[in-house]
Design goal:
Butyryl-CoA Dehydrogenase, subunit A, domain 2, Butyryl-CoA Dehydrogenase, subunit A, domain 3, 3 domains, 4-stranded antiparallel beta sheet, 10 helices, 10 strands, about 50% helix, binds flavin-adenine dinucleotide
Length: about 400
């Protein structure tokens, strides 16, 4: 069914990445989930294999591959069942690094993008603030030009890789006449004086490092403003399409994994003299769930194919995240139910999946905000223009 998107090369890539994850990541996952810290050694290993370079130009050490290699990369990371590990990887690779690629100067790309592709540097993207994440325009963090430096003051919260990344991509307000929404995208080195971070405790994504960050008179070179002054908001909105599609793909992949696991369990577990997969009420729910997941997956692949051709997919990417995260939550909830008491136990995968999945409808634009965007596009005929 999906062979239209995946070639033999894609399938080999999937096999190779799956083997790599089993060898290099899976043996450590339980520990990383407990400590809440991913060992830094894994980053250069990803780098050596080219796994951070899938969508990046060869000039900076990337592989410049099509989007279905990214789809595979995302799907396979969901199958090892640590939403936090996957988030740390994709937040670096696609939240932070997308800004380096799209708005970074040549000097920034040569230094930071190359090191990020190699896994020698880790990045994070700082948009959300304690005053609010949905209303990006209401942010308070500000960057003020002082000679040949910007001075940044403010705070960010819920930032993935926020404590242990080497650099931060910071979205901050700027003073530009007649532009109350003027924002900039700034590159800040972790060790710049005035940057401090606190790790947050959270329900799921436990292996990933989520931080609150304070900027107290942080001085950075003016050349660390990326892209055009004042256009930060547009850049953020532009890149949200990819982030939201990524979260949609993650959702269909974790739901599919939950279903596969649960079906196997149901075939082995007996009650009242027959295996669980023989009970019609459960079989029908399984059929419904597979249908819902397959429809999400097919839609997500279609959006990915269009994004790869630079088709404008802002609305569809919102739909992808909205629907796939909803379906994933429902599927994982019911799969846990089908495991009975074992579903509630930590040594079975569904407990963690339930916690991790809950972030889907919240991070990167809540479901309510996505519905607002879709409604504005459908009903008010609004277009979310690019910065060009
Ligand atoms: C584990 C984790 C990792 C994260 N990683 C990052 C990261 O790397 N970088 C980053 O910048 N951010 C990150 N976030 C932040 C995330 O994007 C925000 O939490 C999200 O955008 C929501 O913002 P908020 O939490 O401030 O909720 P609020 O904006 O305060 O919203 C609260 C509630 O009100 C609803 N609401 C708000 N406005 C409206 C409206 N107009 N209509 C209807 N309902 C509305 C929301 O949907 C939500 O249900 C992360 C969050 C978490 C939990």
């Amino acid at each position: 069914m999906h062979s239209a998107y995946f070639t033999e090369e894609h399938n080999l890539f999937r096999e190779g990445f799956r083997t790599f994850l089993q060898a290099e990541v899976v043996p450590h996952l339980e520990e990383w989930e407990k400590t809440g810290t991913i060992a830094k050694e894994i980053w250069p290993k990803f780098g050596e294999m080219g796994y951070f370079g899938i969508r990046y130009p060869e000039k900076y050490g990337g592989l410049d591959l099509d989007i279905f290699y990214l789809v595979i990369w995302l799907e396979e990371m969901q199958r090892i069942n640590s939403g936090g590990f996957a988030a740390a990887m994709w937040a670096h690779n696609y939240l932070a690094m997308t800004h380096l690629l799209k708005e970074g100067s040549e000097a920034i790309k040569e230094k930071y993008l190359t090191a990020s592709i190699n896994g020698e540097m880790i990045g994070c993207l700082c948009i959300s603030e304690p005053v609010g994440g949905s209303d990006v325009g209401a942010m308070l963090t500000k960057a003020v030009l002082d000679g040949d430096e910007y001075v940044i003051n403010g705070s960010k919260t819920f930032i993935t890789n926020g404590v242990y990344s080497d650099y931060l991509i910071v979205i901050a307000k700027m003073d530009i006449a007649d532009n109350p929404r003027a924002m900039g995208v700034f590159l800040v080195d972790r060790d710049t004086p005035g940057v401090s971070a606190t790790k947050l405790d959270k329900l799921g994504w436990r292996a990933s490092d989520t931080g609150e960050i304070a900027f107290d008179n942080v001085r950075i070179p003016a050349s660390n403003l990326m892209g055009e002054p004042g256009k930060g908001f547009y850049y953020v909105m532009q890149h949200f399409a990819l982030e939201r599609l990524i979260m949609g793909i993650n959702a269909h992949a974790r739901a599919e994994y939950a279903l596969e696991y649960t079906l196997q369990y149901m075939s082995e577990r007996t009650a009242f003299g027959k295996s669980l997969d023989k009970y019609q009420a459960l079989r029908h729910r399984v059929s419904e769930m597979y249908t819902e997941v397959e429809i999400c997956k097919t839609f997500n692949y279609m959006v990915a194919a269009n994004l790869d051709k630079d088709v404008y997919v802002v609305k569809e990417a919102c739909m992808s995240k909205l629907q796939s995260t909803k379906v994933a939550d429902q599927v994982i909830y019911d799969c846990l139910q089908f495991l009975g008491g074992y579903g509630y136990m930590e040594e079975y995968p569904l407990a963690r999946m339930l916690r991790d999945s809950r972030l889907g409808p919240i991070g990167g634009g809540t479901s309510e905000i996505l519905k607002e965007i879709i409604a504005k596009m459908l009903i008010d005929k609004k277009t979310y223009k690019t910065s060009a």
